[in-house]
Structures are given as C-alpha cells and as structure tokens.
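I hope you will forgive my troubling you with a question about protein structure. The matter concerns a single protein, recorded as an amino acid sequence and a row of backbone structure tokens. Please examine both parts with care and let me know of anything in them that strikes you as inconsistent. Here, with my thanks, is the record as I have it:
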Amino acid sequence: MNLRDEIRRRLRAERAALAADECARRSNAIARHVIASPLFNRARHIAVYISCRGEVDPLPVAAAARARGKRLYLPVLDPTHPHRLWFLPWDARERLQPNRYGIPEPAAPRGRRVSPRHLDLVLTPLVGFDRHGNRLGMGGGYYDTTFSFLASRRHWQKPRLLGMAYAFQEVDELPAEPWDVPLTAIATENGIVRPAGRLAGRMKDE
C-alpha cells in the first residue's frame, strides 16, 4: 500500500466514524463559510454533488444558491470515457437515478450536458487535502481528468474548484502526482483555507 492509499484508508475510516447528526452539524457550519465567500457570491453557475459515505453535505449551499437565482449542476459519469464527468442542470424536483457506484445523478440525455468550462464554481468532495491545495479523492481520477484543462492555463480562471472537507481531513502534505489539479480553496467548519505556494498569487481577488 503506497502513502496516498494509506492516507485515504485512514481518513475514510475517520470520516465514516462520524455520527449522522455530527456530519449535519459540521456540514451546516461549512456551508455558512461557503455562502459568505466571494467564490460563492460571484458565481452564477455552480456544480454541487450528492454526498455519500460521510462526505460533507453541500445541500445547504445548494439551497442558498437556488434562493439567490444561481444555476445548479450535478456531475454525471461520462459513458464514453472511463474517468470523465459531464455536468447536467439540476432541478430540485427532478428524479435522480443511481450510477454504477450507487451515487444518485440526473438522467443524461446528450442535449442537456454542460461543459465544465461553462461552470463558475465547482464544489468537490474529497478524502484529504493539504495547505498547498492538493486534493486526495477516492482514487478514480474523475475530477483531475475532467478539469485537466485548468493545469495548462497561465492564469487560473474558471471554474474555481472549492473542496468541501471536515477540518480533520487536512494532512501536513499530500504526495502530488503530475496529473493532479489543485483546488482553488478548501471549505471546512473552521473557515476557508487558502492554498499556499503557486496558487497564492491568483487568490488575491477572491
């Protein structure tokens, strides 16, 4: 087992040990920080996700976004690519269906899908993160593959990637891979974490 896998195993176990009411309490605290942030307030097109396995629940953020007239989207597995996501508009009344991982998602007719380049803000689930904006996911590489185009940009532009995490999911330093796409920021119950290092200069106007 390599270091990333060991960190993933440990943090997933710690996250799974949280009681449901504690997950809800912390998720609400995280949502308050997100809703107060310029990243959220300046965004018109926001991708969220349906939480599972103890992940931070972004639905309080989604409710605030709808109340302010923002457009919401959910990720959908791309049937033509093993590690890429589509994004579809999400109506709260819409019926969702489980994908092959059991995660609810909208039905995906081709005409409804939205390019990730169209989004302003993407709330991302994660297993671990560090102060450099490195993200440890479940290991499938979906977000890194989908947003790989951001790594080639000289100036960090939309969409902004905002990780959603409990504070205990922070580690001192994650081993980074060449294909990793760093997060713009991370929201925890303690506030918004701004990455140090190469992203810091691009965060001044946020």
Notes: The radius of gyration is 16 Å.
